[in-house]
């Protein structure tokens, strides 16, 4: 691993352990709502993001930030960190052990580094472009499953654009009927990490932002997987439609998403 990746892993572990320690201390009065009653943010989210920004600003002083809670809006000329300090906030606030930190580095518009850390399982997924992906330092690869009907698929439900909810559920039911089943964890970053290490064959969702998927995209690709939009393009951040898989069930699963 490069020194840069090692340092991002270190701060991710530090912030993740902070979140785990703070979880039981969060009070209802410290929870805010971003528009909808199911899109929550807590004191822990904000403090976790501030810790990332403070550390990463020193690590690469010229860098900018694309961060969910808006702690810093500085834009870098070449380097920008994309941060979700707490992916799975609802799980976190309800005591469900499925949440993580997610950090990616974008250089000249290209995603080159990603780290996802799950403090509840002490699992750190990391990757740097051209150097492979790891889980707690051990190399990982996507699943070798070639049959769609034997594949386990993950998805999520967006907070907005609910007018297309029925269409989304229809697609979900079709995929569920033609695979081994569906899972909905409530953390897009972990869904993608699980594709990277072979626990899921694929993951798809719409309505996600850059900080939800950037780190996962690097890790999935470096683990040998595919990352694209529902239309099989590279514009998954711009279109807010993310599809990732092990490449071996790619065309069969994308067929279900063509009409989106």
TrEMBL record:
Report the Pfam families cross-referenced here. Answer: Inositol_P
One GO term of the biological process aspect? signal transduction
Checking CDD domains in the record gives: IMPase (cd01639)
Needs which cofactor? Mg(2+)
Is Metal-binding among this UniProt entry's keywords? Answer: yes
Going by the UniProt record, its keywords in alphabetical order are: Hydrolase, Magnesium, Metal-binding
Q: Does the keyword Magnesium apply?
A: yes
GO MF, one term, reads:
inositol monophosphate 1-phosphatase activity
Database matches in InterPro entries: IMPase, Inositol_monoP_metal-BS, Inositol_monophosphatase-like, Inositol_monophosphatase_CS, Inositol_monophosphatase_SuhB
Q: What class of enzyme is it?
A: hydrolase
Annotated Mg(2+) binding sites: 68, 84, 86-87, 212
Q: Which reaction does it catalyse?
A: a myo-inositol phosphate + H2O = myo-inositol + phosphate
Concerning its family, UniProt says: Belongs to the inositol monophosphatase superfamily.
Q: Output this protein's name.
A: Inositol-1-monophosphatase
Organism field: Cryomorpha ignava
């Amino acid at each position: 691993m490069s020194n840069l990746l090692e340092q991002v892993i270190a701060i991710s572990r530090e912030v993740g352990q902070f979140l785990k320690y703070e979880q039981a201390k969060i009070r209802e009065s410290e929870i805010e709502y971003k528009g909808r009653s199911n899109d929550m943010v807590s004191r822990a989210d904000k403090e976790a993001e501030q810790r990332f920004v403070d550390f990463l600003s020193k690590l690469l002083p010229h860098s900018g930030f694309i961060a969910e809670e808006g702690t810093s809006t500085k834009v870098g000329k070449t380097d920008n960190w994309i941060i979700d300090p707490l992916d799975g906030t609802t799980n976190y606030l309800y005591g469900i052990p499925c949440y993580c930190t997610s950090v990616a580095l974008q250089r000249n518009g290209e995603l080159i580094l990603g780290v996802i850390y799950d403090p509840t399982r002490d699992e750190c997924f990391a990757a740097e472009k051209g150097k492979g992906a790891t889980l707690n330092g051990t190399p990982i690869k996507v699943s070798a499953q070639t049959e769609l009907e034997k594949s386990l698929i993950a998805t999520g439900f967006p907070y907005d654009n609910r007018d297309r909810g029925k269409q989304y559920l229809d697609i979900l039911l079709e995929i569920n009927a033609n695979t081994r089943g569906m899972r909905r964890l409530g953390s897009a970053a972990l869904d993608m990490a699980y594709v990277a290490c072979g626990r899921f064959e694929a993951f798809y969702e719409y309505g996600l932002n850059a900080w939800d998927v950037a780190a996962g995209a690097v890790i999935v690709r470096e683990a040998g997987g595919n990352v694209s939009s529902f239309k099989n393009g590279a514009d998954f951040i711009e279109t807010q439609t993310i599809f990732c898989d092990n490449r071996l069930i790619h065309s069969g699963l994308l067929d279900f998403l063509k009409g989106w």
